[in-house]
Amino acid sequence: MADTAPTKIESPNVINKVEVISDRPDCATFIFVDEDHTLGNALHYVLMKNPKVDFSGYSIPHPSDNKMNLRIQTKGNTTAQDAIMNGLSDIKDISQSVDERIGEESNQSHIYSDAQLCHRHDGHPTNRLF
């Protein structure tokens, strides 16, 4: 049987953030430290959009435990590690696109003064803006 001992994905700026438990290349559990539903749900969503992924699911083992478990199973023509790296890259791209769009919109938005508030026919201001 293959070795199922956890391995760590190393990065120069990240210290023990992710552990990988896997006995096959197409199936793995990734344990994220200090992550919650925000990353878990986003990763699950983008992974399930990937046609090379058969299954993705995440769980928070206990509310007081600061870990998030993510299980991935691929169709075999790609590894679970490749799938998660692609998923993280997709989230980064989506986030950058949203950030750029918000920047564009905030440059075009207007701040209205009290004098620019709509007034009802009786002269009292409403909460609506022009």
Automatic annotation (TrEMBL):
Localization: Nucleus
Domain of life assignment: Eukaryota
Cellular component, GO annotation: RNA polymerase I complex; RNA polymerase III complex
Single Gene Ontology BP annotation: transcription elongation by RNA polymerase I
Keywords associated with the record: DNA-directed RNA polymerase, Nucleus, Transcription
Record bears the keyword Translocase: no
Classification via Pfam families: RNA_pol_L_2
PROSITE patterns according to UniProt: RNA_POL_L_13KD
GO molecular function: DNA binding; DNA-directed RNA polymerase activity; protein dimerization activity
Domain DNA-directed RNA polymerase RBP11-like dimerisation: 27-99
Family according to the record: Belongs to the archaeal Rpo11/eukaryotic RPB11/RPC19 RNA polymerase subunit family.
Name of this chain's protein: Putative RNA polymerase III subunit
Primary gene name: rpc19
